[in-house]
């Protein structure tokens, strides 16, 4: 009973946090759609409006991005990361955690970026198609 | 086991200590080695680079801890050294933000740090464990004054928004109650003979005695309100002097509540090898080390230099760069050898003619997200109202940590807290906000733990490491797979180019990784240089 109450309280807190336009909780991440994932995660590096940014190195601009012709390229990048970009896919042989995106969410964010920011690709990628691609091998480790 | 006087050579207390430390270290080793951190720093004293060929030169890329350690030692060994640094300051991630500093992140948003004089925040590393011998060596050599860093403060909080009505609990109380209840349970199991198969009768006696001591149990092996228990978890009313002297014991929280709260997760925070007492911080901010290194190296470092090409040939290495202050014209620097400490997300984008093995390794390491926020308050309410002097509060809120200043105690004036230290998914979400939004959210969440925030907050800064123009991330993250496939290739010298930095170490994210990887790399470069002899 106690556990049930705790779970209910957590769910209530999660939805309250998800209402905030600035922040979603770890528990609520699983409910984000493609647009929300872009705004809550991707734009940290690719920037609002997908403009990219330049420092000692650069974050690619996603506006009118010619590489987006391949949905597999975009999906594999989100799943496994690329160079310094972290992987967002659920590692194989690991229970679903709230720090990763589901295949359905990855499909959704791939569809979102390929149909926004002056990208006009119409393909509707599905969770099943994403599931068939390579996923990260194991959880990343590091000091905290 | 007899002494000359016929008494047992080991007292019961000594035996208990031995058991405790054995079990503790074994459990610790298992926990740490699974993360790859059990290895002590390989630093073994000052590096010896004798016999540098006359006129030999090394170009160092990056004036962070790795680059400046290398430059310092190579210059001392007689090499001609030049350092190229992207930032306008030395240190890299060794960095303190102080009042008057301005910081512009990728995307162009700027923050003006408005802290009072002498107040600062370390956006990057903030602690040095005593066994990071390389860091300890260079802080000593550079004359950096060290202060204690309190990893564990028994009077700071463990906080869950889902437990105890959201009220933060003192670390001291959670630890004492968890430990006491566990000791009571284990004592019960022992006395009910449940452990007969695994512990001999004789050892069970010792175990019971140790549990009584460890858990502050009473004569019946129960964990219950008493002066002994209050001596661990604190009193309802503290003992004092005179007529008002008599203490009132406090009442422990039940096992169920402790377990359900999840706060037990915060108890081992000071047990990890890298977090064990003693830890240190440089007086005046972590950035004092980088600044001192920068002064020491002086004109060897060329600042505002953005590397855009690295090209090696049979005789040396040519690096092309632009000046970030007056971009446009390309400039170049050349040396016999190159030690490159550029963070991998940046390096992966710079054309460099190395073999496929090193190139693949450079592109195989994702960088962690992390956020740190510094908040200035009108007064040090955490000390004045809550008697928290230094240390860290842990919370399940998205801010994850609140770090209290480990210096300037009772100084009366304003104070700066580390309002948030965030990693993982939470950090990515904070990165996606503007700096002002980050500070606003950090204050909002922190006020759930310290309601004084509402009245006392003045100003703040928030650094999101994925938006740091000089790193594009916080630190390199390895898996056992990527280590096996790429780590050696990353560290092997390729022709005339060697890499160094925390990313080329098993101490990822720690400055000690940068220092030891630099020493390892220049030791190997030196051998090659000596083998080739003096320049014609």
Write the layout of secondary structure elements.
The complex is a heterodimer of chains A (144) and B (536).
Chain A: H1 2-19, H2 34-46, E1 53-54, E2 58-59, H3 71-80, H4 103-114, H5 127-131
Antiparallel strand pairs in A: 1-2
Helix pairs in contact in A: 2-4, 3-4
Chain B: H1 12-35, E1 57-61, H2 65-76, E2 80-84, E3 97-98, E4 102-104, E5 110-112, E6 120-121, E7 128-129, H3 133-141, E8 146-149, E9 157-159, E10 169-170, H4 171-191, H5 201-215, H6 227-233, E11 235-237, E12 248-249, H7 255-261, E13 279-282, H8 287-297, E14 301-302, E15 305-312, E16 317-323, E17 330-335, E18 337-340, H9 344-347, H10 356-362, E19 370-377, H11 381-384, E20 391-395, E21 401-404, E22 415-423, H12 424-431, H13 435-446, H14 453-456, E23 457-464, H15 480-491, E24 497-499, H16 511-532
Parallel strand pairs in B: 1-2, 1-18, 2-14, 9-20, 18-24
Antiparallel strand pairs in B: 3-6, 4-5, 7-13, 8-13, 9-10, 11-12, 15-16, 16-17, 19-22, 19-23, 20-21
Helix pairs in contact in B: 2-8, 2-16, 4-5, 10-15
Molecular structure report:
- The complex is a heterodimer of chains A (144) and B (536).
- Chain A is mainly α and 144 residues long.
- Chain A has 2 domains: 1-31; 33-131, Orthogonal Bundle (Cytochrome Bc1 Complex, Chain D, domain 2), CATH 1.10.760.
- The relative contact order of chain A is 0.15.
- Chain A has a two-stranded antiparallel sheet.
- Chain A has 5 helices and 2 strands; from the N terminus they run ααββααα.
- In chain A, strand 1 and strand 2 (58-59) form a beta hairpin.
- Chain B is an alpha+beta fold.
- Chain B has 4 domains: 1-36; 57-85 and 303-365 and 478-532, FAD/NAD(P)-binding domain (3-Layer(bba) Sandwich); 99-156 and 278-287 and 368-467, Alpha-Beta Complex (Polyamine Oxidase, Chain A, domain 2); 171-261, Up-down Bundle (de novo design (two linked rop proteins)), CATH 1.20.1440.
- Chain B is built from 16 helices and 24 strands.
- Chain B has helices at residues 12-35, 65-76, 133-141, 171-191, 201-215, 227-233, 255-261, 287-297, 344-347, 356-362, 381-384, 424-431, 435-446, 453-456, 480-491, 511-532, and strands spanning 57-61, 80-84, 97-98, 102-104, 110-112, 120-121, 128-129, 146-149, 157-159, 169-170, 235-237, 248-249, 279-282, 301-302, 305-312, 317-323, 330-335, 337-340, 370-377, 391-395, 401-404, 415-423, 457-464, 497-499.
- Chain B has a 5-stranded parallel β-sheet with strand order 14-2-1-18-24, covered by helices on one side.
- In chain B, helix 2 runs parallel beside helix 8, helix 2 packs parallel to helix 16 and helix 10 packs across helix 15 (480-491).
- Chain B is globular, with a radius of gyration of 27 Å.
- Chains A and B meet through helix 1, helix 2, strand 1 and strand 2 of A and helix 9, helix 12 and helix 13 of B.
């Amino acid at each position: 009973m106690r556990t049930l109450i705790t779970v209910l309280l957590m769910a209530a807190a999660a939805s309250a946090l998800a209402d905030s336009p600035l922040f979603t909780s770890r528990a609520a991440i699983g409910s984000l759609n493609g647009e929300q994932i872009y705004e809550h995660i991707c734009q940290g590096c690719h920037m609002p409006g997908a403009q990219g940014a330049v420092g000692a190195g650069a974050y690619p601009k996603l506006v009118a991005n010619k590489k987006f012709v391949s949905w597999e390229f975009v999906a594999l990048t989100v799943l496994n990361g690329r160079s310094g970009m972290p992987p967002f896919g659920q590692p194989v042989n690991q229970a679903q955690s709230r720090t990763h995106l589901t295949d359905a969410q990855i499909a959704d964010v791939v569809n979102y970026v390929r149909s926004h920011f002056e990208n006009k690709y119409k393909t509707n990628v599905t969770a099943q198609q994403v599931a068939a691609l390579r996923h990260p091998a194991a959880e990343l480790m590091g000091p905290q | 086991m007899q002494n000359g006087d016929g008494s047992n050579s080991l007292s019961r207390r000594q035996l208990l200590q031995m058991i405790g430390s054995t079990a503790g270290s074994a459990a610790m080793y298992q926990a740490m080695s699974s993360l790859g951190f059990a290895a002590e720093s390989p630093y073994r004293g000052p590096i010896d680079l004798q016999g540098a060929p006359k006129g030999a030169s090394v170009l160092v890329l990056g004036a962070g801890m790795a680059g400046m350690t290398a430059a310092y030692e190579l210059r001392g060994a007689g090499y001609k050294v030049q350092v190229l640094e992207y930032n306008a300051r030395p240190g890299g991630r060794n960095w303190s933000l102080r009042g008057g500093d301005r910081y512009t992140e990728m995307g162009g948003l700027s923050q003006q740090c408005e802290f009072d004089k002498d107040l600062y925040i370390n956006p990057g590393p903030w602690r040095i464990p005593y066994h990071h011998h390389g860091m300890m060596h260079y802080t000593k050599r550079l004359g950096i004054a060290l202060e204690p860093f309190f990893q564990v403060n028994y009077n700071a909080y463990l906080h869950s928004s889902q437990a105890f009505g959201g009220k933060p609990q003192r670390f001291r109380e959670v630890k004492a109650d968890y430990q006491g209840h566990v000791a009571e349970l284990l004592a019960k199991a022992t006395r009910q003979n449940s452990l007969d198969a695994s512990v001999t009768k004789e050892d069970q006696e010792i175990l019971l005695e140790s549990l009584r001591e460890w858990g502050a149990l009473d004569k019946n092996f129960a964990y219950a309100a008493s002066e002994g228990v209050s001596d661990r978890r604190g009193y309802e009313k503290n003992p004092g002097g005179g007529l008002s002297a008599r203490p009132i014991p406090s009442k422990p929280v039940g096992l169920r509540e402790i377990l359900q709260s999840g706060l037990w997760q915060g108890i081992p925070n000071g047990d990890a090898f890298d977090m064990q007492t003693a830890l240190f911080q440089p007086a005046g901010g972590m950035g004092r080390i980088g600044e001192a290194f920068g002064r020491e190296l002086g004109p060897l470092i060329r600042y505002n230099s953005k590397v855009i090409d690295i090209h090696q040939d049979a005789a040396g290495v040519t690096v092309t760069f632009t000046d970030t202050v007056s971009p446009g014209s390309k400039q170049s620097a050349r040396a016999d050898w190159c030690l490159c400490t550029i963070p991998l997300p940046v390096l992966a984008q710079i054309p460099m003619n190395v073999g496929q093995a090193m190139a693949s390794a450079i592109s195989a390491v994702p960088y962690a997200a992390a956020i740190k926020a510094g908040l200035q308050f009108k007064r040090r309410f955490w000390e004045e109202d809550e008697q928290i002097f230094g240390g860290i509060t842990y919370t399940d809120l998205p801010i994850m940590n609140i770090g209290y200043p480990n210096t300037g105690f009772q100084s009366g004036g304003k104070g700066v807290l580390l309002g948030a230290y965030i990693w993982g998914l939470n950090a990515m979400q904070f990165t996606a906000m503007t700096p002002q939004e980050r500070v606003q959210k950090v204050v909002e969440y922190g006020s759930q733990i310290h309601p004084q925030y509402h009245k006392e907050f003045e100003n703040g800064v928030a650094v999101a490491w994925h938006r740091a123009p000089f790193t594009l991330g916080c630190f390199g993250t390895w898996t056992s797979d990527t280590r096996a496939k790429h780590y050696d290739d990353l560290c092997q010298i390729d022709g005339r180019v060697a890499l160094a930095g925390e990313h080329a170490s098993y101490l990822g994210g720690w400055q000690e990784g940068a220092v030891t990887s630099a020493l390892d790399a220049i030791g190997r470069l030196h051998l090659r240089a000596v083998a080739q002899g003096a320049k014609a």
